[in-house]
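Take a protein:
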Amino acid sequence: MKYLLTLLWSLGAIAAQAQEYTGHVADKEDGAPVAGAIVTARDSLGKPLGYTTTSASGDFVLRPRGDGTTAQLDFSTMGYRRQSVPANAGRMLVLLTPETTDIREVTIRAPRLSFRGDTVSYNVSRFTEAQDRSIADVLRKMPGIEVAKSGEIRYNDPCSYRRTTLSDGLTVRYDAGSFSVASITSYQYSDDEMILDQDFLPLSYFTLKQARTEHTLTEDIVFRSHERGAYRWLLGAFGFYRHGVMNAPVHFKQTGIEELILSNANEHDPQYTYDAWDNDELLLGSRFRNPSAGGALYHESNYTAGRWRFTAGLRFDYEHTRLRYRSSTQTGYTATNRVSGTTGHYPLSIDIRNTLKRNFTEVLPKFSVLYAFDEIHNLYVSVAKGYKAGGFNTQMFSDVLQQKMMNEMGFGTVYDADKVVSYEPEYSWNYELGGHFSCMEGAVRGDFALFYIDCRDQQLTIFPEGTTTGRMMTNAGRTRSFGGELSLQVSPWQNLDINAAYGYTNAKFVRYNDGKTDYKGNYLPYAPQHTLSANGAWTIPTGVQWLGNIVLQAGVRCAGRIWWNEENSLSQPFYALVEASLRFEQKHYSVDIWGRNLADAGYNVFYFKSIGNEFVQRGRPRTFGITLNINL
């Protein structure tokens, strides 16, 4: 018997052999979750074994549906540099390098100018004139909005983001002759703080501070038969514990108090005139503890009969999560009775605290059949059930507290916190037909896949009307997606590699009605209909030991159309980004001189709302840089 003990101390991922891959994808610069990123599992030859997309919170669960052993996961999405990481059985943290401008670089469209509830609204048509040549010309006429010559929208409070992460792991493998067993233990720590002027205006409405600390411990034990004989099997158990603490106060400032609270109160209360607030600032405090734990048992069997390979798998998932929250404020105001004329001071003391608990269980089967024409050429078909657990919208608690405060003042509706902050699991059935091919003695290799996904209770990011703190997760009734992917790797001669990939996705609502609008037949937001990439790399050996090789690389990345909202009224058309690089690589270091978006294409990468205003985040313009990597 053979023992192998491997100790991994790193700030990256931990290689593993589990059949399910979970993790979180975030922006490398500000730590914000990256929604809609495509996660693709590939074997050691680059063949795709399955894919998924990240949720609105940046999380993903990927169960490869093809036949083979996953060697790496590829992460790609608009506005970020493509990244590949080794397959990791523990929960992974993947930080994508953005290729977009800072949040200050935004454009805006908005409806009618009015204050309704806590929403500031604009009607662009009322500010438009015949001589206007851009949206900036219109925005400069709107009260409260300043636009620089560059098109940048100015806001008055400082914004910052700080993030610290650490990942450690221990892997132990044991070879028992007829089978092997591996224990993969990982620990992850993250600490981040974000301060954001969330109204995105040069007026003092409100700012948000969000400080979060999280500890995650995972354990995966995998038993695997050796690849001998017609039958092979895999049996595993996975468990995790995660504990997060977050402090997320919202500071209403003078303009926000006057326009969003006092003006709203005077408009809706016929008995009192609200004269003044006690202080120039109003603190709505929210603190959360979010412990969660779960486990899974899974099994996979593979049987080979001649050219046929049959695979069947079953996984049982359980997760328990709870949210302990406390939202509070201590303040007061002065109001005058409209009839008697008497003026009085009215204190407000609100302290809402509770614990929400949710349990999620699911059984997930999968089946696949592969026919191998030879060692390289094959076709496969697979069916698998997909699942994403539900959770809590912690960002909604400031709105819960604000509505409670307004209700104490005599108007406004009290939210049911359990209903407002909770969302349900998402379920799907995934069908795929694909294959691998090669020709010209291996100089041309390729993979293709056709897929159809039937999803129930689709988890969807929305921007609720009348809220001040941004987006929340909800469940759409039913969606369906179909499409295909094709990738090619061409090596016409030694040291020259050409790669190309194309993907098409048609994702629409089958059933979704939010009570006001029926979105049946509309496209899902944030899902690119077309993705295209092509790049070539030419490696030139220098023969000089200290210099190593010179690599010349050029390529193009394209995406679109991308719809930004459920109404399909806003979208990003198809766009292309040209890039090139010159790299000097040696075993101890590499220097990469690169240029991105060389044609200086204009495009948008994200859409969001703030107090009724709609914003889009611009992509990076033509950019040049140098990257140095040192291998110790």
About this structure: The helical segments are 135-139, 254-268, 397-408, 417-421. The chain is about 5% helix and 60% strand. The CA atoms of residues 440 and 492 lie 9 Å apart. Residues 1-18, 100-151 have pLDDT under 50 and may be disordered.
